[in-house]
Amino acid sequence: MKSKYENMKIIYNRSKIGWYWAPLFVSCWFLLFYLVVIPSFHRMPKLKTLEDERQQPGQFIGERAENTLLRLSKIGPKVVGSAANEQVAVQFLLSEIGDIIADARLDLYDIEKDVQVASGNYLLWSMVNVYQTIQNVVVKLSPRNATSEAALLINTHFDSVPGSSGAGDAGMMCVVMLEVLRVITKFETPLTYSVVFLFNGAEENPLQGSHAFITQHPWAQNVKAVMNLDSAGSGGREILFQSGPDHPWLMKYYGKNIVHPFASTIGEELFQNGFVPSETDYRVFRDYGHIPGLDMAQTLNGYVYHTKYDRFNLIPRRTYQLTGENILALVKALANAEELENPSKYAEGHMIFFDMMGWFFVYYPESTGVIINISVCVLVCITIVGYIWIMSSSTGMFRRRIWAKFGILTALQVAGVALGIGLVMSIALFLDAVNLPMSWFSQNWMLFGLYFCPMIFGMGIVPAIYFSRTKELLMHSHCLILTVVTAVMVSYSIRSAFIIMLCIGFYTLSVLINMVTKAHKTNFLWLIPHCTCQVLPFMFYTYCCYAFYVVFVPMQGRECNTNPEILMGFFTALMVLLFAPFLVPLFCLFRKSKTIISMFGVCTVVFIIFAATPIAFPYAEKTAAQRFFAVLSTVSHTDSGYFVLPVDRRPHTVDDILFENTNFTKAERMDCDSELMCGYPIYSSRWLNAVDNSYFVPGPEPNKAYIPTLTILDKTSSSATNIKFDLEISGPDHTSIFIQPLNDTKLVDWSFTKEPIKNNVKPPYYVYWSYALDPKPLQFSLEFEHDDPDWSGGTFKIALMGHRIHDDMFITEDFREFLATFPPWTYVSSWLGSYNSWQL
């Protein structure tokens, strides 16, 4: 005789689906991702040729932009201060602009061009950014008989980082702007306001050209809005990741006119909250020009960003057409926008916006978003209560008992989610602790096993263990949890709450359909509306997830301060919580459900093992290289050699290769107590965060011709407690200066911007000085104050770090031999440098 429990179990199993259908169920969702989502992300229009222009004039011609970029990229690296940047690139742009003006409808437009040469300084991050005689190429296009002086600014940059031709960053945007200018001026294009095209020559320095224009150029005073175009990769769809701020009208024009949308509130909030280790000229225009705008950048193949692999031939050909059509449409729209006359009148509120897989664009005011989010949350609660009420009436169960069961399932769902997140975070911390992070860097499929699988396992195994047929109640409980999260996000004015609202909204729709059709009373018929209503959310969330990986995975190759596993793991867990909570419980409809779900746990273990083997080695030659900086430099007065700076989370991957069976040795860390910045030749403020992972390899002495010199011009005292030093520095065109007051003295005034002093920036004070056309020495003054009139001992210490970051001819054979020691899967940005310090 079989027990009552066994009989119930047999009946229960008969109402389940055969376990062998589970792989097919999973495969359907994988196919949906690979056959619809990924192609949608990479979909771009066909490149239009010169022949197309003859047939349909007035279009953006991608072929012409492509040909222009080929010629621009042949110039090679265009570093501020180099002849390539200050002479060849400037003349190239002027020649192209001249040709455009020659073909323009000068009866309709006034076209002016200018080469701005500017010097100045300002506070960027905690660094005083000093620039000297840098250049911008500027074009102003104005409609004849214009009644307003207001102007729209379009900005990009033509300079590049050392060693890179800058084809993607941002030569691509330069040629797009040139073609947009050509199309507008050659064909009759109605314009209400002027358009200023700024080709700035010092963005990588960083952000100097934009500051020079917006604070010094006479055309800047009439600029009312900006479109900033940049790149963090090599072509692909340009993403709009910042707008405004507080100017929702800009997003309305974007939404109405964009041809190929790619934008998200999520990206904007991630960028503005510091999750992206980068800045663009948009920040300068916003902070120093106080103008609103759109910040757009291409992000495909970020592995080559700021490397020698950023080449013309890697940019997908259709990129020119996609970006060109978008920019042309936006320029036409914004240059005729009535809001451009006085944008301050419309400066109120924020927008919620996102594209649906590039198919169409959704945007609405934040206030509308609050109403929608709250309405959906209320609808969810009403639907759940209504479902339980109907369930009680149709089954005869007491509502109190159903609510108790619902409470238990909610607790189980919370436990499952907590288990999944706990597993994901544990794996992230473990991989970083055992020096195995970033196994997914070049092989993104590793993310599936490391983070998707444990999250799905945690969410599924707890409910599967609990013997229950009420899978609908289980999903209702998860929906209620997400509803609470949505309400909390709305209360904190987090606009990205829309992404959870969509999840619970589509699920609630499926529940309502089932309730109306009474399909929820059947064994499996309810699955049809349920799965159908999950298709669109699944595609949207996996699209967002894929876009996140395309943008953020390559970025982790230049970020060493934070554990990249936590970022990848947390975001993956979040996405699983959105696209899988109403799919994972369906595994319980299959026989052997616990075994099926356990396979995700087994997969996780296998992938962790992969992470410790060569199968998951993070780097690949050319396509996903590990980045290093190497500077042949004098270090701390007496020593010389190679200063090596790894920039990602795996700084020791080359140690065995560099120091075993070679003539090179790894020196002990310098005395950081006696030398500023430990005696290392710091190049930029970003190096400050990575210096803990750096090391010094003894080597030959570099050419001393590029070592900065310090001269005391004057030393005066206005009182017994104040001393003023007048100093002069000469040297290479990129020099870092660190100033540390000593013996309780205080810096009270200097020749640069007073912001660091007013804001009580913690010493040492960092000044970055670069020049382009004029190598005139930098002269400045420092005034110190001391409470005690006794000035015995030093007043301050100053360190100068010179960098010759262009002209490879100065790299010696010894240096080349050292660089050749690095394995082929690395990319080493190298130049000559120096460190010298004085106590005054």
From TrEMBL:
**One Gene Ontology term from the biological process aspect of the record:** proteolysis
Provide the GO MF annotations for this entry.
metal ion binding; metalloexopeptidase activity
Kindly give the InterPro entries that the UniProt entry links to this protein.
ERMP1-like_C, Fxna-like_M28_dom, M28_fam, Peptidase_M28
Q: Which residues cross the membrane?
A: 20-38, 370-390, 402-425, 445-466, 473-492, 498-517, 524-549, 569-590, 597-617
Q: Which cofactor does it need?
A: Zn(2+)
- Annotated ranges, domain Peptidase M28: 136-331
CDD domains per record? M28_Fxna_like
Q: How does it sit in the membrane?
A: Multi-pass membrane protein
- Domain Endoplasmic reticulum metallopeptidase 1-like C-terminal: start-end pairs: 626-838
**Predominant localisation class:** endoplasmic reticulum
The question of whether Protein biosynthesis is a record keyword is answered with no
Enumerate the Pfam families for this protein: ERMP1_C (PF22248), Peptidase_M28 (PF04389)
Q: Which UniProt keywords apply?
A: Endoplasmic reticulum, Glycoprotein, Hydrolase, Membrane, Metal-binding, Metalloprotease, Protease, Transmembrane, Transmembrane helix, Zinc
Localization in the cell: Endoplasmic reticulum membrane
GO cellular component labels: endoplasmic reticulum membrane
Q: Which SUPFAM superfamilies match?
A: Zn-dependent exopeptidases
Family indicated by similarity: Belongs to the peptidase M28 family.
Question: What is the recorded name of this protein?
Answer: FXNA-like protease
Q: Which species is this record about? A: Drosophila gunungcola (fruit fly)
